[in-house]
Amino acid sequence: MTQASRDWWRDAVIYQVYIRSFADGNGDGEGDIAGLRARLPYLRDLGIDALWINPWYPSPLNDGGYDVADFRDIDPRFGDLAQAKELLDEAHGLGLKVLLDIVPNHSSWDHQWFKEALAAGPGSPERARYIFRDGRGPDGALPPNNWRSVFGGPAWERVTDPDGTPGQWYFHIFDVSQPDFDWENPEVRAEFLDILRFWFDLGVDGFRIDVAHGMVKNMNGPDLPYDESGLLDRPSIADHPFFDRDGVHEIYRGWREVADSYDPPKLYVAEAWVEPAERLARYLRDDELHSAFNFDYLKSAWTAADLRRSIDDSVSTLASVGAPATWVLENHDVERVVTRYGREVTASGTGHAGKAKGEVDVELGTRRARAAALLMLALPGGAYVYQGQELGLPEVLDLPEESLQDPVWERSGHTERGRDGCRVPLPWATSGSSYGFGSGGSWLPQPDGWGELSVEAADGEPASMLSLYRDALRLRRSIPSVEPLAWIDATAEDVLAFQRGRGFACVVNLGAAPVELPAHREVILASGPLDSDSRLPADTAVWLAV
Ligand code: NOJ
């Protein structure tokens, strides 16, 4: 194996499969492994390098599967281990790598360990795998401190002891059904090393690590000064008691040893909402994780100044630890980019879907999302594409309230709709049962007209988002990946223009008026029609041979 093929991930495009909403093979209204296997040729033809599959473990799905009841199995609604093995073999046969999602900060309350913890009582080794504390006040009736769940409400829940009396409290950063593990406990550490090996031995190529900046906590930390607690908010105070604590790095050094014991080595991608970029870079040191989502980029406004700052920051800071930058516009937690870029405010404060209000111009958002795709895919490093992004799906903003499943909806007292709007099952066909998603409907309702955005409608249609992604992913392979980004002095303030090597340039017009293109030999790809050969309209990007 050459160094270049060991380093495949450095400029890879990784496609995110939200399995419950991707494709339904057995007609029960939920996506599954069978559906995904049937669509692998679609993914190969799209031109991506790898898949990242959201959690598929047994789970009550209180938080879309991020509440894991058994880390070494697959939920029957998605398939079984034998099917998973077949999926891995088939994907590898098509030249696609496969990453899973590991959720080390917490389990489901349906996990065997948590059931044992409740049954065993205070002070037991079973309780020591989680974070149980006595309450405050005379009867212990008050939570141990004022910390809040990022889904809303307190981060503590009181249990009822087996004899029916009120007992201790357990800590949960997320939903009440997601108790946090105690990572000070060596048994928890050993358990996760074993889980990693379990999946690596099955053939999985790596993991996306959920809440990679969680796990290590200072449970003696002070009460926190809350104003409004936002979902997945980055730590906004120094020395946060449960996010981005220095102790987490030692865990990753151990995980890296496991990854490197395989040939080829396995890969880790951090989901870490930390800032500034220097803090993120610490996760990507040589002996820790390989790569991380660039949420600073995702949250940036659609302005040349914001994006350029984010690009420069990311590239230079990550280079200081030898890690490539990555680029991401969407995932299953944030508002779809077609919608976000169609709003008056295009920056995303917390990155959180379901919060933004106000008018959306989907046509404008789509034009910008097309330009943003060419920008992202021309930048040096890796990129992520969330399922349906390649179809230009908008956020579904009007899901009926009774269909909402994100725990954010309940925990926010029905003030935030949560993230279901970006999780609506994919349209594969122009018509028919759930627009080709499956034969038995879809677990979240699809809006009318969803079929017009389907793969069938977009396929072979030169002006479709799908054709743009296919062309860009194919042509991207000829952009010299070793060449760094070199900014070209742009003619206008609202323009981003850069070269990658001597022959390739990308120019994006984020302003309101058309601009002159720099000298070039040929337009390789354009996100929208050009005024003439040398003028780039507003909200349009081009790849040029120069
Ligand atoms: C981040 C995941 O992306 C999100 O969907 C989940 O709710 C939280 N982590 C908790 O696991």
Per-chain topology:
Elements: H1 3-6, E1 13-17, H2 33-38, H3 40-46, E2 50-53, H4 81-93, E3 97-102, H5 112-120, E4 132-133, E5 156-160, E6 166-171, H6 186-202, E7 206-209, H7 248-260, E8 267-270, H8 277-281, E9 291-292, H9 295-299, H10 304-319, E10 326-328, H11 337-340, H12 362-378, E11 382-386, H13 407-411, H14 455-458, H15 465-476, E12 485-487, E13 495-500, E14 504-509, E15 515-516, E16 522-526, E17 535-536, E18 540-545
Parallel strand pairs: 1-2, 1-11, 2-3, 3-7, 7-8, 8-9, 10-11
Antiparallel strand pairs: 4-6, 5-6, 12-13, 13-14, 14-18, 15-17, 16-18
The structure holds 1-deoxynojirimycin.
Structure description:
25% of the residues lie in helices and 14% in strands. It is built from 15 helices and 18 strands. Helix 6 packs parallel to helix 7 and helix 12 packs parallel to helix 15 (465-476). The two termini are 34 Å apart. Bound molecules: 1-deoxynojirimycin. The site of 1-deoxynojirimycin has 10 residues, from loops. Residues 16-423 form the Glycosyl hydrolase family 13 catalytic domain. This is Glycoside hydrolase family 13 protein.
